[in-house]
Amino acid sequence: MSNNKKQRFERYIDKSSIPGHEEKSSSGKTKFNVNQAKIDDVKTALENDTNAPSWLKGGAYTEEDNPHGLADRSDFIILFPQYREQYLKENISQIESTLAASPYYLKVTLNCKEGKMIVETTDKTFDPFIIFKGRDCLQLVARGVPFPQAKKVLQDDVFSEVIKIGNLCRNKEVFTKRRQRLFGPDGSTLKALEILTGCFIFIQGKTVSVIGEVNGIKTVSEVISDCMNNIHPIYHIKQLMVKRELKNNSEYANVPWDKYLPKFKKSVNKSIVKKKNKKLKPKKEYTPFPPAPEKSKKDIAIETGEYFLSEQEKQRKREVERLEQQQEKKIEKKKENDKLYQPPKEEENPKKRKVDSVIETDDNLIKNISQRQTSGLIAQQKKKTKASDFIDN
Question: Taking every annotated instance into account, which residue ranges of this chain make up the domain K Homology (predicted)?
């Protein structure tokens, strides 16, 4: 703990009432070391000490705590977009009167030409931190939050945060789709988050404005960042509902809640799994030398020997190549013309019956062959004619 803080606590705390702080140093001064184990004792001592101011006990910071005011004036400039100009013109009187009233005593000026608002302290301002609260209030109004909601930031226990979500997605289509998840059907998801966290949430463009207590703002920022990273807010809402029920039940106050909270596994897209399981192409062998340059026309002519020919020989060679190409084209054209004079193929008559081939066994096949051979020999003997058949008797 720093020396300033020690002096601040030593001034208002009766150290004799705090156990463990009666030791004295060699110089005779009382030692004062606050640690985590003795915070409760310090709190009780503050409550019992009548000389300590209210803000040190955890109360509000009043004008009695700083009767002389601030040493110097300070101000902040807040820029606003053009579409908020009309709203600010209509409600600037309400904003000025609210911030100028007790216990804030802040001055607000609107400059529509330059598109800015200026909030500054006055001679009556006694709270040194209220200027930051006024700046946050006007920032929320500039982002589109209605002033009745934005002025809640001026309270001591209420804070705000503007979360930027524009750079959390890869393209505009994905961004609009995931931002719509925060709203839900008819704004039901947003309303459920507001009830469970006790915060006011306002989504405008590429920012989300949150107003509430510190724990609630922390929870909302986690839900928003996970939503932009493709985790649906409904999973967090279910966990928050279970936590609220466990908090209200005194039996589970000193018990870990991990086993009662719902756990969700992220589903894996099949197309992504297929891409991962795809076999990688084998890499080519590494060669330290660069690829050979393409050959020029001159190099090709040297290899073929055409470079060393005379102009007459080159012309004769070109003429021969031209005649060969011409002859090839004539042959191709003749083939195409001959196709026109070819008769069309006759289609087979479908009415003719096709004889099915019968597969015979080995024994039957041998018998049939032997029978055919014997019948053939007999027929040949019958057909044999004699010379006497042609002689007339």
Answer: 157-229
Q: Write the CA distances from 6 to 13, 24, 32, 221, integer angstroms.
A: 10, 15, 7, 35
What's the distance, CA 306 to chain centroid? 64
Query: Residue 191: is its pLDDT beyond 50?
Result: yes
Separation between Cα atoms, residue 212 and residue 194, nearest integer Å: 10
Distance between CA atoms of residues 177 and 51, nearest Å: 58
Distance CA 158, CA 233 (A): 24
CA 44 to chain centre: 49
- Residue 87: C-alpha distances to residues 84, 113, 114, 145 (Å): 5, 15, 16, 11
Give me 207's structure tokens.
Answer: 């920012």
Q: How far apart are CA 244 and CA 257, in angstroms?
A: 11
C-alpha separations of 387 from 30, 94, 392 in Å:
162, 147, 11
Q: Return the residue matching tokens 């802040």.
A: 106
Instruction: Please give the DSSP secondary-structure letter assigned to residue 52.
Output: S
Question: Percent of the chain, pLDDT > 70?
Answer: 71
Q: Which helix (H) or strand (E) holds 242?
A: helix 233-248
Residues in the chain: 393
pTM of the model: 0.56
